[in-house]
């Protein structure tokens, strides 16, 4: 649905158990909930439930009249956004209107009778293109990746130079009160891959995982306790659950292998002090000091208007990026690459720490 004209742009009924006209109740229901301050991700009209997300100026809405798996529905809606963005660069009303045919083709391939099917955009792009002629030719032959056990990787990939690039990226979320005490903090991490490997290799990634070291009795050195670990579908979950080995056949090119969270007390990496002085109703001086190296002083000339209401005290938000460093201490211990042709491949590892929701409250 489009926010600008509040009408349905694209609609696909997979099972036929919900009347197509039910979507007409969505926007009035949404506006009513918004006015009442009761906006929520699931809304109901009679026995029909609307599960929705908003992206740009569009609403993506799923309807059901059963007790459906909500997490699966939302995962699919966000996957739709990802796939459409891969195809059209920007997902908005205009890109949907300009690509009706491709959108319907994608909807038919992404889901079958209400069940998600092929959702990998790289595989979809092998046989659903934005050129009509190629689209017709491709229909006669479905890529083997769709029916393979390894649906995320094509066969017959060849590179002159076999390489793997590993990026370990951690974002720090910190909230510091005006007295300098850390009120909340955690670390959200992601391990991203760029693989340029021939054939169908199996990769094994070793981290300084505390649980793994505990199982093997090698509890030496710095270890990390990861929580909320989420893997790409290529990772063999049964293997990880049994012995914490991260074993997988990687997608070709760029992908996110895993994400994790570390719930720990984080000492602020960057410290900011601020002093705000009001000299009159028309002049304010702000001094911001970062550590011992930087000092910023700013004067603001304001309209001479008094405001008796209490002024807000917005926190200072800090943005930064630190290369060659992870605040948690996580390390890639090894990356083994096993392929039947026996080639040697060199893995490259890069560590980055960056700010997430990093805020310091002011004492004003």
Automatic annotation (TrEMBL):
Its main location: membrane. It is a peripheral membrane protein. Residues 161-364 form the MHD domain. One of its GO terms (biological process) is vesicle-mediated transport. The lineage of its organism: Eukaryota, Metazoa, Chordata, Craniata, Vertebrata. It is found in: Cytoplasmic vesicle, Clathrin-coated vesicle membrane; Golgi apparatus. Subunit of clathrin-associated adaptor protein complex 1 that plays a role in protein sorting in the trans-Golgi network (TGN) and endosomes. The AP complexes mediate the recruitment of clathrin to membranes and the recognition of sorting signals within the cytosolic tails of transmembrane cargo molecules. Keywords: Cytoplasmic vesicle, Golgi apparatus, Membrane, Protein transport, Transport. Belongs to the adaptor complexes medium subunit family. This is AP-1 complex subunit mu-2. It comes from the Eukaryota. One of its GO terms (cellular component) is clathrin-coated vesicle membrane. CDD domains: AP1_Mu_N. The gene is AP1M2. Pfam families: Adap_comp_sub, Clat_adaptor_s. PROSITE patterns: CLAT_ADAPTOR_M_1, MHD.
């Amino acid at each position: 649905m489009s926010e600008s004209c509040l009408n349905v742009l694209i609609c696909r009924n997979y099972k036929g158990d919900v009347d197509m006209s039910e979507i007409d109740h969505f926007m009035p229901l949404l506006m009513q909930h918004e006015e009442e301050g009761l906006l929520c991700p699931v809304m109901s009209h009679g026995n029909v439930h609307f599960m929705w997300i908003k992206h740009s100026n569009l609403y993506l809405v799923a309807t059901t009249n059963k007790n459906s798996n909500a997490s699966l529905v939302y995962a699919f809606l966000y996957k739709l956004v990802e796939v459409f963005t891969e195809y059209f660069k920007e997902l908005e009303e205009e890109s949907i209107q300009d690509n009706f045919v491709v959108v319907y083709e994608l909807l038919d391939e992404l889901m079958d009778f209400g069940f998600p099917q092929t959702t990998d955009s790289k595989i979809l792009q092998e046989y659903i293109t934005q050129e009509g002629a190629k689209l017709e030719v491709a229909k006669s032959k479905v890529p083997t990746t769709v029916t393979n056990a390894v649906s995320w990787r094509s066969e017959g990939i060849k590179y002159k130079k076999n390489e793997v690039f590993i990026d370990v990226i951690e974002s720090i979320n910190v909230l510091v009160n005006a007295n300098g005490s850390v009120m909340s903090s955690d670390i959200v991490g992601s391990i991203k891959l760029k693989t340029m490997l021939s054939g169908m290799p199996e990769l094994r990634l070793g981290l300084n995982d505390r649980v793994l070291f505990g199982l093997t009795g090698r509890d030496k050195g710095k270890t990390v306790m990861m929580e909320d670990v989420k893997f790409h579908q290529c990772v063999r979950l049964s293997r990880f659950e049994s012995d914490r080995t991260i074993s997988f056949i990687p997608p070709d090119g760029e992908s996110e292998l895993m994400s994790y969270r570390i719930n720990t007390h984080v000492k602020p990496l960057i410290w900011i002090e601020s002093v705000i002085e009001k000299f009159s109703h028309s002049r304010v001086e702000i001094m911001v000091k970062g550590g011992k190296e930087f000092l910023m002083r700013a004067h603001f000339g304001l309209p001479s208007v008094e405001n008796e209401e209490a002024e807000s005290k917005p926190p200072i938000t800090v943005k930064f990026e630190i290369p060659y460093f992870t605040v948690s201490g996580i390390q890639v211990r090894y990356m083994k690459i096993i392929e039947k042709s026996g080639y040697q491949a060199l893995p490259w590892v890069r560590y980055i720490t960056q700010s997430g929701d990093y805020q310091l409250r002011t004492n004003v």
